């Protein structure tokens, strides 16, 4: 009697724990790929009858479909078949990325780990040899984990020698703490590491460069808003208060100009908006330049009085 397959493990790896890991390593189906289930219907035992519904297929039929895809890919490596295998085993990448991401700094995005793991999965599919009788899930999880770790190392600007010394110092602190039942001094830690105190303090300075904290986390410490956009000033941004004040000043000025006499409005308009000189304005109005200067002075005084009155 064939057993019905367990539900596909699409959930986050932490929701399944060790059960999901053992299920993946034992070759259990990780997803219900429609291409795979279609292949399972075509290769199921008992003839070439129509494929049954996905929910009615047994775990044996799904495994048969995967084996058929592997045979097809081994005989003739094709990108379409490879993509079907990648789609079927994609939940492995999410699971491994979740396990690797546990304990990493907060600035490391799990999405970037998944992207790196996909390359490891593709490489595992292309290099896997089904004839050797190994479980692909176990082999793929190692390749995915290796691809993620390689990508993390390539992005690390700290030399590996410094990382190695940091781990050695942490282990020495644990040993001394357990032996002395207290926090060891710098001299005691230097003696445990067989280095001088000056070298230890120099090493502390190098270790400061390895500590990374997200700028948003640093700015938002103790605040309700965690958005960096709400914190950093934009010197090029327009001040909305200044815009409102300018609009209000323009409105008051327009009202004050509207209350001038017609000749004063013409002088103001030609001088400030048309950029004409006093002599050119005099030719337009048929008066002398000195008369235009008098009209301009009178108009400015009246405008100033109107604006002060409105204020």
Account of the 3D structure:
By secondary structure, the protein is mainly alpha-helical. Helix content is 66%, strand content 0%. The chain has 15 helices and no strands. Helix 3 packs across helix 4, helix 5 crosses helix 6 and helix 9 packs across helix 10. The protein is elongated. The N terminus is likely disordered.
Q: State the distance separating the first and last CA atoms.
A: 93 Å
Radius of gyration equals 38 Å
Give the SSE order as H and E letters: HHHHHHHHHHHHHHH
Rounded average pLDDT: 75
Number of helices: 15
Shape: elongated
The beta-strand count equals: 0
Protein name: FliA/WhiG family RNA polymerase sigma factor
Structure keywords:
FliA/WhiG family RNA polymerase sigma factor, 311 residues, elongated, disordered N terminus, 15 helices
Short description:
With 311 residues, the protein is an all-alpha fold. It has helices spanning 13-16, 18-25, 34-42, 59-75, 79-101, 110-127, 136-155, 160-180, 186-193, 197-208, 215-219, 240-258, 262-273, 278-285, 289-310. The termini are far apart.
């Amino acid at each position: 009697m064939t057993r019905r397959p367990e539900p596909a493990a699409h959930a986050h790896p932490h929701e399944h724990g060790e059960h999901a890991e053992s299920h993946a390593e034992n070759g259990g189906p990780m997803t219900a790929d429609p291409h795979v289930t279609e292949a399972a219907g075509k290769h199921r035992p008992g003839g070439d009858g129509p494929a049954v519904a996905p929910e009615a297929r047994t775990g044996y039929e799904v495994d048969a479909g995967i084996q058929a895809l592997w045979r097809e890919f081994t005989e003739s490596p094709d990108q379409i078949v490879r993509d079907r295998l990648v789609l079927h085993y994609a939940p492995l990448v999410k699971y491994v990325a979740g396990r690797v991401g546990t304990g990493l700094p907060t600035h490391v995005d799990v999405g970037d780990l998944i992207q790196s793991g996909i390359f490891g999965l593709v490489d595992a599919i292309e290099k896997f040899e089904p004839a050797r009788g190994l479980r692909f899930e176990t082999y793929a999880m190692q390749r995915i984990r290796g691809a993620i770790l390689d990508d993390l190392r390539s992005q690390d600007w700290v030399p590996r020698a410094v990382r190695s010394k940091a781990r050695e110092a942490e282990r020495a602190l644990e040993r001394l703490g357990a032996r002395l039942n207290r926090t060891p001094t710098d001299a005691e830690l230097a003696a445990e590491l067989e280095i001088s105190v000056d070298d230890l303090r120099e090493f502390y300075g190098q270790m400061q460069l390895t500590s990374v904290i997200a700028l948003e986390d640093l700015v938002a410490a103790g605040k309700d808003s965690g958005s960096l956009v709400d914190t950093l000033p934009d010197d090029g941004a327009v001040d909305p208060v200044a815009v409102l004040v300018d609009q209000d000043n323009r409105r008051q000025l327009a009202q004050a100009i509207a209350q001038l006499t017609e000749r004063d409005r013409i002088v103001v308009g030609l001088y400030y908006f048309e950029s004409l000189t006093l002599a050119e304005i005099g030719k337009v109005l048929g008066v002398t330049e000195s008369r235009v200067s008098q009209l301009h002075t009178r108009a400015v005084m009246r405008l100033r009085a109107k604006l002060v009155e409105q204020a």
